[in-house]
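Write out the 3D structure for:
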Amino acid sequence: MSVMIGLVAYSPTLYRLFCAATGYGGTTQRADSAAASVSDKTVTVRFDTNIASDLPWRFEPVQRDVKVRLGEDKLVFFRAENLSDKALVGHATFNVTPDKVGLYFKKIQCFCFDDERLEPHQQVDMPVDFFVDPALAQDPDTQDVSEITLSYTFFRTADSEKAKDLSRFLVSAPPDPHRGEELFEQRCTACHALDRNKAGPALGGVFGRRAGSVPGYNYSPALLASGVEWDQDDLDRWLADPRGFVAGARMPIKIPDATTRRDIIAYLKRESIEETAPLQHSASDAVPQHASLRAPK
């Protein structure tokens, strides 16, 4: 314990990094994607929310608890409402109990990663995408755990310049390709690039492209035979549940949050347009200037 106190006094940043790496004090982990496998063992995850006295927000879980299988990707929501007449910025601290579970509780997406701005009297449902690592059941110290509590406390912060706008989570918000690019980097680049095949096929120019048509990529027979031509609706269905959309597809990753899918698709659409524009421009340049004139009668 004296070592921990000394580390906090010496460097709060090092202390946060230590907690993130070890799960110390119930600190949860970050993950880019869901677990590779799902166990039959289930745990109940309960939610607890708190607000600092100087932050006039209402903050509560939309659902009080959920039952999940170990490794199952789960999306839940927390509702925040600014009760004041001015925009305010908050930052959420978080932990899980029992503390020993921190190493196995993994968040793919969470509002707690950033300073968040909420406009006057605005109400937003904020997503948290998480899973509990199946390794929880193999650890002698945690294999008896059947209930986990995820707790958040929102504190007021004055750092408004770096704050993100919580309105991005409104379903009615317009698609944001800039946010989509950030999300693509976080969620997709382990398997995909725009300009080359990796574990997944290249995604540059995906809009309007027939599924299974990228040269050099080994597609599943199911996707090759699907006949899908990628548009916004099909990409949304695919990202929400690839194997549900195309039975027999190999892609295991789902993106359950609709606003995340919306912005990733907006980014892919922007990149597709930018990729085809130079080709269209080159083709028009190649047409002789007199080609548009009507032939004489």
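The two ends are 96 Å apart (CA to CA).
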